[in-house]
Design a protein that fits this description.
The complex is a heterodimer of chains A (about 120) and B (about 100).
Chain A (H helix, E strand, L loop, with lengths): L1 H22 L8 E5 L7 E3 L3 E8 L2 E6 L4 E5 L2 H21 L7 H13 E3 L1
Antiparallel strand pairs in A: 1-3, 2-6, 3-4, 4-5
Helix pairs in contact in A: 2-3
Chain B lengths: L9 H10 L3 E4 L4 E8 L2 E9 L10 H5 L3 H8 L5 H10 L8
Antiparallel strand pairs in B: 1-2, 2-3
The chains are: A alpha+beta (about 120), B alpha+beta (about 100).
């Protein structure tokens, strides 16, 4: 019984530690949060900081913009990051071209989020 | 620790795009957008990345609002288009006409 209690306490400590690391934006080994500073040379203005989560994956790196549920990948961190910016702009343009009444709940939400971060110059 | 779970490839993404009758829209390199409509309503979309490597679709489950397991089922045929639509309705990701 004493051993089980000790094991549980260790697990609890580990959970607290991992939660703290996630809150600091560190997460699991290999994951980090990188801010988007610019979309240059594309003609778009960034209205407020955009955070991208970069993570190791089995075969490269994943880049995610969680607010708008957008993700992609690349062979390197830099490639994944640039691919994500490219995809964000593709979706911003594509959703903006769509008639509002044709957008389902999630695409409408994504467009609203993107418009709060991006403006076409 | 790298993320574990089923790996998804360009072939999986393309099979899913076919099954969901997605409209393909060319974007900036390297992506094409696969856009899924239900009737007149756009309900989901995901990027298909053209490149030399055939992995890196860890984002696909999230874009399809499915678990990795169910995304694998969608790619490999056990899950049908109608079953996926049912999941989307349950999650209220399809606006119903009044």
């Amino acid at each position: 019984m004493a051993k089980e209690i000790t094991d549980l306490k260790r697990l609890e400590d580990r959970i607290v530690d991992l939660s703290a690391r996630i809150e600091r934006g560190i997460g699991a080994k290999g994951a980090k949060i990188v801010p988007v500073q610019t979309f240059a040379p594309e003609p778009y203005t960034l209205l407020k900081p955009m955070s991208v989560l970069l993570e190791d994956s089995e075969d490269g790196y994943l880049a995610s913009f969680f607010d708008a549920n957008i993700g992609t990948s690349g062979e390197t961190e830099q490639e994944a990051f640039e691919n994500l910016k490219s995809l964000v702009l593709d979706l911003f343009d594509s959703l903006s071209r769509e008639a509002p009444e044709r957008l389902g709940p999630e695409p409408a939400r994504q467009l609203a989020v993107l418009r709060s971060f991006i403006r076409a110059a | 620790m790298p993320r574990r779970g089923p790996l998804f490839t360009t072939a999986d993404a393309e099979r899913i795009a076919d099954k969901l009758e997605a409209v393909i829209e060319q974007g900036r390199r390297p992506h094409a957008l696969a856009i899924v409509y239900h009737g007149e309503q756009r309900i989901a979309h995901f990027g298909i990345r053209r490149g030399s490597r055939d992995h890196g679709y860890g984002h696909l489950p999230s874009a399809l609002h499915l678990s990795p397991h169910h995304t694998r089922r969608l790619a490999d045929c056990p899950m049908s288009y109608d079953e996926w639509i049912s999941v989307m309705r349950e999650k209220r990701l399809i606006a119903e006409e009044n």
